[in-house]
Design goal:
Blueprint: H1 2-27, E1 31-35, E2 40-41, E3 45-52, E4 60-61, E5 69-83, E6 86-99, E7 103-107, E8 111-112, E9 115-116, E10 120-125, E11 135-136, E12 141-148, E13 158-166, E14 170-175, E15 183-187, E16 192-198, E17 201-214, E18 218-222, E19 226-232, E20 247-253, E21 257-261, E22 275-276, E23 278-286, E24 291-293, E25 298-307, E26 326-330, E27 334-340, E28 343-356, E29 360-364, E30 367-373, E31 378-384, E32 387-392, H2 407-415, H3 432-462, H4 470-487, H5 491-505, H6 513-519, H7 522-536, H8 546-562
Parallel strand pairs: 2-10, 22-30, 24-32
Antiparallel strand pairs: 1-3, 3-6, 4-8, 5-6, 7-10, 8-9, 11-12, 12-13, 13-17, 14-19, 15-17, 16-17, 18-21, 19-20, 23-25, 25-28, 26-28, 27-28, 29-32, 30-31
Helix pairs in contact: 4-5, 6-7, 7-8
Length: about 600
């Protein structure tokens, strides 16, 4: 029964499917495509018009056109008309294209949602370019390119020049961007306009220059540039057409150029490869006399300039070879690139504050920058000679302690008469009176030492000795001096007080800010480094002593707790004012060529 029912419904289902397919074909919108002229030139634009009497299923996708054509622009419009009382509506899409090659080209079907246009065949003719070598186009509009040099070194500068020549009125021109894989490209300055001659005819010229820096050796292809320009549809040479004459879009392509990029030559023995047309190295000192005092900063400025090189290939000048007694505080290097008409000018400037710790004469080492002269094809060296600076003792210099005489040397000083010319005075050294006198004094000293030892032992048994208060008094004076220096925001005074405080706290510490920072941790270390930058950094900045005083207070409190001495009451840097009952507590504080 089931099979018999299926056979009965089969013809009905087949008929329904056929009707649906026929009705779908009838309901599909017809889209027609036409060209505004034929044949067309390979370097001239033309319009493709897609029209329909009804609204299609969706928006068009013109991507398939890019296989054989370059799409310059597209627009859409609709028209409503009434004929014999019947209203009709037309939808149009206009696409301006340029053929990529000559021959018989097919405009493929374009999808409008589920609807599709019909294909169209277009004949494209090939017109030769009668212009001079390196140009493309007819005699009214030309594009020329040239490059120098054609066999550059890797990372060396190549000048690429583009000239657009025209002797017809232009409605606008657009030049494609210059993009080269494995190369850095920079446009040099603005466009340059002038007049020139080609084959006896005078042209207006617009010139654009680029700097190209190949990043690897071997063949390097500079692709052709595309120029799309609107020109008069008729009229050539010196003919001045009337206003309102129709315009057409002409598309020209420049020739492709291949470079042979050479690697760095074996004759270059420098550490950093630097190809350039010219390199200079300059040095300035502030103060320029080269005479300073200990603790006073000397600012050394090194400036490296390279013509025809990017700033990325300029080497670091560095601080190698400076004497150990000179501390250094370098600033961030200043980098600059200037795009001049002849090429790129790059500059690297390094500033360093040099602070000597000891007086004397010091030699700043010579600085050498090897570079390759691309014009002369040889290696050269930009050099600064050695420079001597003189450092005098100043108030900010750490004072070296004078060693105290030992007991033996003191006794010799007390008992030895003055000498003249290295010989003892006659009659004194050999006298027996001096022998007995020395013996008597030595015995008295021994008796006194014994009595003192016995008294000390007896006192120790009866009472417990109190610790000496003199170190605490000395410490109080040091803390008071350090607090006042921090409150006055005086970095020089704070440095001297900090050195005295550190000498008592860490006797084995180096008498310098760097030595104290090495013994410190946390906030104290950061505060000492900030003091050093305020003293020796460039440029000078104002210093606030609150952070250093807070770090000192925190350090002494931690020491007191570690030694189980109980809390230590250290006054704040700026004590708050006492609050009165009335006031309450006080709170702390074209030819525009677009690319």
């Amino acid at each position: 029964m089931a099979a018999r029912g299926l056979r009965a419904w089969g013809p009905l289902i087949l008929g329904l499917l056929l009707w649906l397919g026929w009705s779908g074909a009838v309901l599909a919108t017809e889209i027609i495509v036409t060209a505004d002229r034929e044949p067309v030139s390979v370097n001239e634009s033309f319009n493709l018009t897609f029209s329909a009497d009804e609204s299609p299923d969706g928006e068009p996708d013109f991507t398939p056109l890019s296989r054989d054509f370059r799409v310059l622009s597209q627009s859409q419009n609709s028209q409503i008309s009434m004929v014999n009382g019947k209203i009709s509506r037309t939808f149009e899409w206009t696409v301006t294209v340029v053929a990529k090659q000559a021959g018989t080209l097919t405009v493929p079907p374009i999808a409008f949602g589920d609807d599709r246009s019909k294909p169209l065949t277009v004949t494209v003719t090939d017109r030769p370019a009668p212009g001079p070598a390196g140009s493309a186009g007819d005699d009214a509009l030309l594009i020329e390119v040239d490059v120098s040099p054609k066999n550059p070194y890797v990372q060396a500068q190549v000048i690429y020049t583009v000239r657009v020549l025209y002797r017809t009125r232009l409605g606008g021109a657009r030049l494609s961007p210059l993009e080269i894989p494995d190369a850095l490209v920079q446009q040099l300055g603005d466009k340059h306009n002038y007049s020139t001659e080609r084959n006896g005819a005078t042209y207006s010229a617009t010139e654009i220059r680029y700097a190209i820096f190949p990043q690897k050796s071997g063949p390097l292809l500079i692709p052709p540039l595309t120029l799309d320009a609107e020109v008069q549809a008729s009229g050539r040479g010196g003919f001045n057409p009337f206003f309102g004459r129709p315009m057409k879009t002409v598309s020209l392509r420049s020739k492709a150029i291949e470079l042979q990029v050479r690697p760095a030559p074996a004759a270059f023995s420098g550490k950093h490869w630097l190809p350039a047309q010219n390199v200079t190295l300059e040095e300035t000192l502030s103060p320029d006399t080269g005479r300073i005092e200990t603790g006073q900063p000397l600012t050394r400025t090194l400036t490296l300039r390279a013509q025809g090189a990017t700033v990325g290939v300029l080497p670091e000048l560095g601080l190698a070879g400076l004497p150990e007694d000179i501390r250094r505080y370098p600033d961030q290097p200043a980098l600059d690139e200037q795009r001049q008409g002849t090429g790129l000018l790059s500059t690297r400037q390094e500033k360093t504050a040099l602070v000597p710790d000891r007086p004397g004469r010091y030699l700043l080492p010579a600085i050498e920058v090897p570079w390759w002269n691309t014009a002369a094809e040889r290696m050269e060296v930009a050099r600064l000679p050695e420079r001597e600076i003189e450092v005098a003792a100043g108030a900010a210099a750490p004072i070296q302690p004078v060693p105290e005489p030992t007991p033996a040397s003191a006794q010799e000083t007390a008992g030895t008469p003055p000498v003249k010319g290295g010989e003892p005075e006659s009659g004194r050294a050999d006298s027996p009176i001096w022998f007995w006198l020395c013996l008597f004094l030595a015995g008295g000293w021994l008796i006194t030492a014994g009595l003192w030892w016995r008294t000390a032992r007896w006192s120790q048994e009866k009472t417990v000795m109190k610790p000496s208060e003199s170190p605490q008094l000395s410490g109080s004076r040091l803390m008071r001096e350090l607090k006042e220096a921090c409150a006055a925001n005086d970095p020089g005074r704070a440095r001297r007080a900090l050195l005295d405080w550190a000498a008592q706290r860490w006797p084995d510490c180096d008498a310098s800010l760097e030595g104290i920072a090495g013994h410190s941790q946390g906030e104290l270390k950061h505060a000492i480094q900030a003091l050093g930058r305020a003293l020796y950094g460039y440029p000078r900045t104002e210093w606030n002593g609150a952070a250093l005083w807070a770090a000192i207070v925190t350090t002494d409190l931690g020491k007191a707790r570690a030694e189980n001495r109980g809390p230590v009451a250290l006054a704040p840097l700026h004590p708050p004012a006492q609050a009165s009952p009335q006031s309450g507590a006080r709170r702390p504080n074209a030819l525009s060529m677009t690319q």
